[in-house]
Amino acid sequence: xxxxxxxxxxxxxxxxxxxxxxxxxxxxxxxxxxxxxxxxxxxxxxxxxxxxxxxxxxxxxxxxxxxxxxxxxxxxxxxxxxxxxxxxxxxxxxxxxxxxxxxxxxxxxxxxxxxxxxxxxxxxxxxxxxxxxxxxxxxxxxxxxxxxxxxxxxxxxxxxxxxxxxxxxxxxxxxxxxxxxxxxxxxxxxxxxxxxxxxxxxxxxxxxxxxxxxxxxxxxxxxx
Amino acid sequence: xxxxxxxxxxxxxxxxxxxxxxxxxxxxxxxxxxxxxxxxxxxxxxxxxxxxxxxxxxxxxxxxxxxxxxxxxxxxxxxxxxxxxxxxxxxxxxxxxxxxxxxxxxxxxxxxxxxxxxxxxxxxxxxxxxxxxxxxxxxxxxxxxxxxxxxxxxxxxxxxxxxxxxxxxxxxxxxxxxxxxxxxxxxxxxxxxxxxxxxxxxxxxxxxxxxxxxxxxxxxxxxx
DNA sequence: TAGATTGTTAATCGATTAACAATC
DNA sequence: TAGATTGTTAATCGATTAACAATC
Lengths: 224, 224
Prior knowledge:
Two copies of one chain form a homodimer.
Chain A: H1 19-26, H2 35-53, E1 58-59, H3 61-68, H4 72-79, E2 86-87, E3 91-93, H5 94-104, E4 112-117, H6 119-128, E5 133-139, H7 147-157, E6 161-165, H8 171-181, E7 185-188, E8 200-203, H9 206-223
Parallel strand pairs in A: 4-5, 4-6, 6-7, 7-8
Antiparallel strand pairs in A: 1-3, 2-3
Helix pairs in contact in A: 2-5, 3-4, 7-8
Chain A binds a DNA duplex through helix 2, helix 4 and strand 2.
């Protein structure tokens, strides 16, 4: 979309789009979206899914804002990083917006995964995780388990994502093995953080959020 | 600590501390710390615990920064919101800093909790959660389970925190019951978010972080 | 057309970083 | 004392909000 106040007959050479802008344009996405916005996308996605499940067809930014406890302005601003998904005077089509955000997030049921951890963890992951295809569970307590067998499987089956919850001292070996096996991402619940140059990583530490809860309780007490 | 360039003989009435500043001073904490800083505290806490477990006695902001993938400046800035924990020319005493942050986060092993959810969840929580005293597990699949029995227990035992992972349509009833039972905080893993005026709440949705992982993978693919 | 609501800009606000004086 | 490293300020950077023109 051209700036409104620009005379398009006069072309300023500095205003021509760069190669990277052209490339990103062709994927229908304006440059790199701010990190803060990306972090909010999964939450939008969840709320939109709930709306869909409740057969809500359309929603305005201010209705959604009320529901999610944020400002309408922020919602419109966020969504506009990725395209023009709404319609003036009408709002947003829930299903369309849901699909768009799903597409942006790469939620296409396309990625394959293996899970490694204690059996309770493996069981729970089944419940919790939609959207990736889990090919196999590796119970770390089982006799047949070894890092090699995990690596071989991931290689053989071209596994995209490893979901892991293993003891602190088992982390490094598994990560090395996964890098060599060509695994693309690690979803790590173990208490040691993973970093990798080769793979995308999400470390997730539920206990952190518990500490924020005890912080809130302590803070409330103190203020009384 | 007084500003260096201030002549303390000349007192500006507008510079006298307000009541709220005096109160917060007496708790050894400068006003309200920025939210962004509080969110980082649990991660500091974890890294310091690891250092302690490896018998590291002291650490400088830049060493810690390297380890955590952030700037030394930010670490010093963050910590100074709560007090002067370091020593010029020396760095930070790991154990002391760990204890201070634990204190700030209210991590005093003092809060009691009940857990409600499917049995795999209950089992897993045992592993994952240090620092709160779990008094009882309520398996939602069991015959004896009911919202009332959960509520009665929390009332009787003055439970501080409810850890929950229950189906979408069970959430609202439990939250109401907890409010009336005087429970102070909810640590919620269910897929419906909880909000409450009476209680502190942390909603935690692991699947969100999986979507950020698939986003990263998709983004990487696209840029190739 | 009138009413509603988006898309988009500019203003505000808060968070991060760089730099250096204070001081151990 | 000299060297190291914090505490603290000011500058930069990015995120949020408010406002309104565009437009359905």
